[in-house]
Write a structure and sequence with these properties.
- The structure holds two protein chains of two kinds.
- Chain A is mainly alpha-helical.
- Chain A has a domain of 272 residues: Orthogonal Bundle (ABC transporter involved in vitamin B12 uptake, BtuC).
- In chain A, the strands form three sheets. In chain A, strands 1-6 form a two-stranded antiparallel sheet.
- In chain A, a hairpin with a 2-residue loop joins strand 2 and strand 3.
- The radius of gyration of chain A is 23 Å and the shape is globular.
- Chain B folds into two domains: 215 residues, Rossmann fold (3-Layer(aba) Sandwich); 134 residues, Rossmann fold, CATH 3.40.50.
- In chain B, a hairpin with a 6-residue loop joins strand 14 and strand 15.
- In chain B, 39% of the residues lie in helices and 19% in strands.
- In chain B, the strands form four sheets. Chain B has a seven-stranded mixed sheet, sandwiched between helices. Chain B has a five-stranded parallel sheet with strand order 2-1-3-4-5, sandwiched between helices.
- The chains are: A mainly alpha, B alpha/beta.
- Chains A and B meet through helix 1, helix 3, helix 6 and strand 4 of A and helix 1, strand 2, helix 3, helix 4 and helix 6 of B.
């Protein structure tokens, strides 16, 4: 179906299902219970999951396939956001023109940066991209203030032209009248589910982005990119010019980043310079490695993981901890809270850092490898339980899921 | 072909789920609430969004202390602090409108994006009716915009840029803190008295919005005295080393250096300027001087010895002797063992002001609250008689001119109050050109309904 093998189709369907059911899946605890703290099913975070998922999927096309580690992808994210907000200011709050233009502009920008940076590989390439991104960040922060509104961030003012805005147009981002911020809440016996239009918009785009990346991974072009990762020198010796391929991969992943940046501004009509800072570039590298570089699902998992920590763990403060452990005797309660304190709230970076180290050391393939190991464990058990049935015995050995 | 069967069923199932997912928003309507996050139970939630990491983390921590204290006082725990001295007496320690006050905290990381994400989760997940906090004008402006769109009240914390209640003012946003224009207006007469009216000033300015508005304000008010602005050099934020910016000052013929820096940047630039021996120099037959327009206790603590005799301005200081200040310093000191900083004070006052406005309005509806705050005159909060101006939601009150103390006895009294500049001297029309001129407008109050 859709030019995919049966296995990939099933995989895509699972992804589609998970994406669409996110508002239900992320709200496992009833409102008002102590565990409600860990619910993540509110619009902003779900939108972030989808958007950073797109960002990481795009980054993975470059890093996972060609092995070129770009440390400047946040620049494209920022360019995408600025483009969309400018379109709000000039045309109106419909997100479509902005998003299309965001992809085009970030592609041009990626073409320029990629053309220069890809003359080098390895660490030099990383440094060059980092330099370009920091340059863009500093320009946006100060010199280009008339265009970017500096530190305050670009936003829409009442006196902007907005030539396409009619009398009844919504006053926040929308797609032909579907206002992104609108959501519907469903109260089912204590559980509160929020279905947000903005999230579903991002989710549909994320699924398309995922499908596209799946096709790229399975295409001859993807094979060529993998060959570059494996041994670029040998490719060159066979008389093949690899530069166009890497440049194409760079531009494609730049477009993904631009789209993600545009979506950020579509959900929240503001573009700030911090979006281009090197920490933002580093974040997507972390997401990809944490989830599993070169795998299809990994970057998305990594993105979700990091955003979850950033938004949920950072909000656990001492008061919350005390409430949890209130049943313990006073002295013990304080000791337990003091012990957990450094790892939550403002210490969420610490927890994430430790988890990242554990993953890199014990699961070099990222979270995806962890999942595969667990799956293999179960498979082995199943086999050992029923040795005589032979139902599973004829199946060919599953191929290593390097590209999944 | 079992596989293709599975696929088709999968397609059907997915199609059904997709259809249901897309159709849901049109079936149900979300008009159950009269306004965003209307509190229906016996509690009401406030959101405290402060920097807990990044360059302003110290300020954020102090803000958080004050906010927790404010919640205690509202709920009738502790000695009541400023509730006893506040001129409005509607708050009685039983929460707000009989609802117990709860709060959630978030980390702004001093980045607009992170601050907005944190504020959004407070609004969407925790259901807060008001957000208070923010150290850094960029963050304050960003969060203020968000609260306007979402339909809740934003009570700004430490934000000094003219833009917050200038060109970026919003109907749902309120600022108690003073601004760069007020700093200039308060500092200028003191500077004239101390340094004369024939001076040549050299500005080093943090290269972002706050720096620009402060430089503009200070240059305008010193030029009105007859001072000449020799040069204005923009320095990157978080530069660390300012020596390359300070060396040219000596050869420029300037005799005053104005540091439009804040936080760690100010500590570094001031320390380096002193190390270069600027303050021992005689230029144009006058002693070379340094001015830091915006002070904070935490910066003064960091700069140590170098701050002696340097002039600056503040919103409030714990050494003031009025009843409100004494009550607040007492309860803060008893709880945390240190005097509150001026950012802590503004957050504490903002939280009480919000609670008071809700009680006077008799409703949590943001538009009713905004109406209660607009034009509200009060006293007993440490700054003397204060007015929340309706035109731009800026508080008008006395401004403190401070000087680095010559003989500090502890690390908390490194600054001394030189002059309390009366409110009349720092007032300006709401359509002042530095505040967006005639184009700036609050827009319509939004309650999210």
């Amino acid at each position: 179906m859709l030019g995919l093998s049966a296995k990939d189709t099933r995989f895509l369907l699972i992804v589609i299902f998970l994406t669409l059911a996110t508002p239900l899946l992320l709200q496992p605890f009833p409102e008002g219970s102590a565990m409600a703290q860990f619910n993540a099913g509110y619009p902003d975070l779900m939108q972030k999951f989808a958007i950073y998922g797109i960002f990481a999927i795009g980054f993975n096309i470059l890093f996972g396939l060609t092995g070129y580690l770009s440390f400047g992808h946040a620049a494209f994210l920022g360019v995408g956001s600025y483009t969309v907000v400018w379109m709000y200011k000039l045309l109106g709050y419909n997100v479509l023109p902005g998003l299309v233009l965001a992809i085009i502009i970030s592609a041009l920008f990626a073409l320029l940066i990629g053309f220069i940076s890809l003359r080098r590989s390895g660490i030099y390439f990383s440094i060059l991209t980092l330099a370009f991104a920091q340059m863009s960040y500093n320009l946006a922060y100060s010199v280009l203030t008339p265009i970017t509104n500096g530190e305050t961030g670009l936003q829409v003012y009442g006196n902007d032209p907005q030539i396409l805005v009619g009398a009844n147009s919504p006053t926040s981002p929308h797609l032909f009248g579907l206002v992104m911020r609108d959501s519907v809440q469903l109260d089912v016996g204590g559980w509160l589910f929020t279905f947000n239009i903005g999230y579903y918009f991002c989710a549909v785009i994320a699924i398309l982005a995922f499908y596209l990346s799946l096709r790229i991974f399975r295409s001859p072009f993807g094979m060529m990119l993998r060959a570059i990762k494996t041994n670029q020198t040998r490719m060159n010796y066979t008389g093949l010019n690899t530069r166009p391929y890497t440049l194409a991969a760079f531009v494609i992943s730049g477009m993904y980043a631009g789209l993600a940046g545009g979506l950020l501004a579509s959900m929240d009509p503001l573009a700030g310079a911090e979006r281009m800072q090197w920490t933002a570039s580093g974040e997507v590298v972390l997401m990809t490695i944490l989830g599993g570089a070169g795998t299809l699902m990994g970057p998305v998992l990594g993105a979700g993981f990091i955003k979850y920590f950033e938004n949920i763990f950072s909000k656990i403060n001492d008061n919350v901890l005390h409430a949890w452990f209130a049943v313990l005797p006073d002295g013990l309660e304080n000791a337990v809270v003091a012990m957990i304190h450094p790892f939550v709230g403002k210490g969420w970076h610490l927890t994430l850092g430790i988890l990242f180290m554990l993953v890199v050391i014990f699961l070099p393939g990222g979270l995806v490898e962890g999942g595969q190991r667990i799956a293999r464990l179960f498979n082995r058990k199943k086999k050992s339980k029923g040795p005589g049935t032979g139902a599973g015995g004829h199946k060919p050995k599953p191929a290593p899921h390097v590209a999944e | 072909m079992t596989k293709s069967n599975l696929t088709r069923r999968g397609v059907l199932r997915t199609g059904a789920v997709t259809g249901a997912g897309l159709a849901l928003p049109t079936i149900f309507t979300s008009g159950a609430y009269a306004f965003t996050n209307e509190p229906t139970g016996s509690t009401v939630k406030l959101g405290f969004n402060v920097p807990q990491s990044g360059p302003y983390a110290d300020e954020g921590l102090d803000e958080l202390r004050a906010q927790q204290l404010a919640v205690e006082h509202l709920n009738g725990v502790g000695d009541g602090g400023m509730l006893n001295t506040f001129s409005s007496k509607v708050l009685d320690g039983t929460g707000i409108l009989g609802k117990k006050v709860e709060f959630v905290t978030g980390d702004t990381q001093t980045k607009s994006d992170a601050a907005r994400a944190s504020a959004k989760s407070m609004i969407e997940k925790d259901g807060v009716v008001m957000i208070n906090g923010g150290s850094s004008s960029g963050v304050a402006v960003a969060v203020q915009g968000l609260c306007q769109e979402a339909g809740i009240i934003f009570m700004a914390g430490l934000t000094h840029s003219n833009d917050t209640t200038g060109k970026d003012r919003k109907a749902n946003g309120f600022r108690h803190f003073f601004n760069a224009y007020m700093s200039g207006a308060a500092l200028a007469p003191v500077l004239q008295k101390a340094y004369g009216s024939d001076r040549r000033a050299y500005h080093l300015t943090a290269d972002y919005t706050w720096g620009y508005t402060q430089q503009e304000s200070i240059a305008a008010s010193t030029e009105a005295l007859g001072w000449e602005t020799v040069n204005n050099v923009l320095t990157p934020v978080g530069a660390g080393d300012f020596s390359s910016y300070i060396a040219p000052v000596l050869n420029s013929g300037a005799d005053v250096l104005i540091l439009n820096h804040y936080g760690g940047d100010m500590i570094n630039s001031l320390t380096q300027a002193v190390q270069f021996g600027l303050r021992d120099k005689m230029v144009n037959g006058k002693q070379f001087e340094i001015v830091v327009p915006l002070y904070s206790e935490l910066m003064a603590e960091g700069a140590g010895e170098n701050i002696k005799g340097v002039y600056g301005s503040m919103n409030w200081n714990w050494q003031l002797q009025d009843e409100g200040t004494k009550a607040f310093v007492k309860s803060f000191g008893e709880k945390y063992g240190r005097p509150p900083s001026n950012s802590a004070h503004t957050c504490y006052v903002q939280t009480l002001l919000y609670a008071d406005a809700v009680t006077r309005a008799g409703a949590f509806n943001p538009c009713a609250v905004a109406e209660a705050l607009e034009g509200f005159e009060f006293d007993g909060m440490g700054n003397g008689p204060t007015l929340y101006r309706a035109d731009d939601h800026q508080c008008f009150k006395d401004v403190l001119v401070m000087k680095g103390a010559d003989n500090p006895t502890t690390k908390f009294d490194t600054l001394e109050v030189v002059e309390i500049t009366p409110r009349a001297q720092v007032e300006y029309p709401s359509n002042h050109p530095m505040f967006g001129g005639d184009e700036a407008s609050l827009g319509q109050c939004n309650d999210g309904a």
